[in-house]
Specification:
A 6-stranded antiparallel beta sheet has the order 1-9-10-11-15-14. By secondary structure, it is an alpha/beta fold. Helix 5 links the parallel strand 7 and strand 8. It folds into 2 domains: 173 residues, 3-Layer(aba) Sandwich (Rossmann fold), CATH 3.40.50.2300; 129 residues, no CATH class. Helix content is 37%, strand content 22%.
Length: 333
């Protein structure tokens, strides 16, 4: 079980030559899967190319960069830009990102295989809707890497199967967008991003607080999580190493004994995010306001975590909520 380092609602693109089928399918998928529908393949391709450019550019921002200014003792340094992950939430068009394409096979002029071939280079995942007689064609397309799944329209459980595949492929889309960065992060202070126990914790808390988007957070390490109204929560996740660092810096900073004892005994998790992430005798005189009781997640190593309800005013920049997006784009709800 793997967790994307960021994820937000996206657009499912439906392509079929039957407007009535598209209307019915969008109604059945409902607001859980925001969608846009096209009965014209040319219009669909144009829309996909226009809106798929954003995640492609974003993937470049999330890639690690190489600093070549130094040649000793090593030829280069790898720079990880973690703050750019959290900055994705400020992108006003993020909810229009096409993550999954659902296309019918039997269409006049351009069938579903030809359509997928035309948009093969785009990062969105692809599901082919087929008839009973088209299964061999779908298997061949899958083996060629043109599609990721196929669903038979005649299947009595077709809608359930489609919804399950949409959920899996949307998450796979985000995993692929930041795979290199996620693997490098796991080698450093963010080992929790690859720990199934933390993945399960994020899913559990997401369901409890009705979270629709999350982003890796830098200081303290963890995840910024938001519901459809953009109410923010910070899930702070600290390892033993991180808690030791908090204790040592607080000790050097002359922190009160009560804080030092709480840190040493792992009774609380700090959220000193109004600075460099560590205790400051100037900023954190009332340190109780910056901490929460620690809970333990037993993964590959013990992680100490806490959920902080944040004041939206502490976050940088204006951000459109998913609820506001749906009000502005009722056709996608």
């Amino acid at each position: 079980m793997t967790l994307p380092i960021y994820q937000h609602p996206t657009m499912t693109v439906l392509v079929d030559d039957s407007p009535s089928f598209l209307h019915s399918l969008r109604f059945q998928l409902g607001p859980a899967f925001p969608s846009i529908a096209f009965s014209d393949t040319g219009a669909a391709i144009a829309w996909l190319r226009r809106h798929a450019a954003a995640p492609a550019a974003l993937a470049g921002l999330l890639s690690p960069s190489v600093d070549t200014y130094t040649f000793a003792p090593q030829p280069y340094n790898i720079a990880l830009h973690i703050e750019q992950v959290c900055g994705i939430r400020l992108q006003p068009e993020r909810f229009l990102t096409p993550s999954v394409l659902v296309v019918d096979y039997a269409m006049p002029g351009m069938d579903g295989i030809a359509f997928c071939e035309a948009v093969r280079e785009l990062p969105c995942r692809k599901i082919l809707l087929t008839g009973v007689a088209d299964e061999r064609v779908a298997i061949e397309a899958f083996n060629r890497g043109l599609i990721d799944r196929y669903v038979r329209k005649s299947d009595v459980h077709a809608l359930d199967r489609l919804e399950a595949e949409l959920t899996r492929l949307q998450e796979g889309f985000f995993l692929a967008q930041s795979e290199t960065l996620r693997m490098l992060l796991a080698l450093h202070d963010y080992s929790f991003v690859n720990d199934p126990a933390i993945c399960g914790l994020v899913r559990e808390l997401g369901a409890r607080h009705k979270i629709v988007e999350h982003y890796l957070y830098n200081s303290p390490p963890g995840f910024l999580m938001m519901d459809r109204d953009a109410r923010p929560w910070l899930l702070a996740v600290e390892s033993e190493h991180g808690m030791n660092a908090h204790f040592e810096i607080a000790l050097d900073g002359g922190a009160p004994p009560s804080l030092l004892e709480a840190l040493e005994q792992r009774r609380m998790v700090p959220n000193f995010s109004d600075g460099d992430g560590m205790y400051s005798p100037v900023r954190h005189k009332e340190w109780h306001r910056f901490t929460a009781p620690a809970q333990v997640c037993h993964g590959r190593e013990p992680y100490y975590w806490a959920m902080f309800a944040l004041d939206p005013g502490v976050l940088d920049g204006p951000m459109e909520s998913f609820a506001a997006f749906q009000r502005k784009h009722p056709a996608s709800a």
